[in-house]
Amino acid sequence: MTEILVLYYSRYGNVAEMARHIARGIDSVSDCSARVRTVAPVSTVCEATQADIPDSGPPYAGHDDLKECAGLALGSPTRFGNMAAPLKYFLDSTGDLWISGALIDKPATVFTSTASLHGGQESTLLSMMLPLLHHGMMIVGLPYSESALLTTCSGGSPYGAGHVAGVENDQPITDEEKQLCFAQGKRLAETTIKLSTTNH
Question: The CATH number of the domain where 78 resides is what?
Answer without folding.
Answer: 3.40.50.360
